[in-house]
Specification:
- This protein is 89% helix and 0% strand.
- It has five helices and no strands.
- It starts with a helix and ends with a helix.
Amino acid sequence: MKKSLKTILTVILLVGFVVVGFAQKPEHAGKKEKTEKKIKKEKKNVEEVVEDSKQKKNKVEKKIKKDKKEKIEEVDEKSNAYGKDKYGLEGKAYGQERARQAKLQKEEKTKQLENTVKKGESKANDAKERVKVVKEKLKAKKKQGKITDEDYGEKIEKLEAIEKEADILEKKVEKGKRLKKSKAN
């Protein structure tokens, strides 16, 4: 039994050495190092990319914060913010001053509306008169035979488009007049 045990152990040891010998072939020996180097390079590349993206993110965040501050300041400058600057007044005196300013603003806007309505009304009337005169001249030229039917048709279409624009302007003027009346009441 000792002999058979010795032979079995010997065979097992031989098989173990053979397996170890195959595991350490020279063609496979350097692959582990190469893969480790590749992994290290890729890791460095990834770390660089991550670092770059962090820097870009920080730049963008700083820019956003700066833009946000600028917009807040811009809004603060444009907003009414009644009550921030009280002109050294307090209580009832400030309220009366504020009411006086509001009345002045309302009067200014009313005057602007009146001027806009007058200008719009005169523009619409002038446009309609010009179109009327030009149409009469075109009819006269057509009767005399100075222009062709095609030219006449094209010019009449253009004049009708101008008339439509004048009508739209008149409607806007009427709306402005109604608005002016409602503000006056």
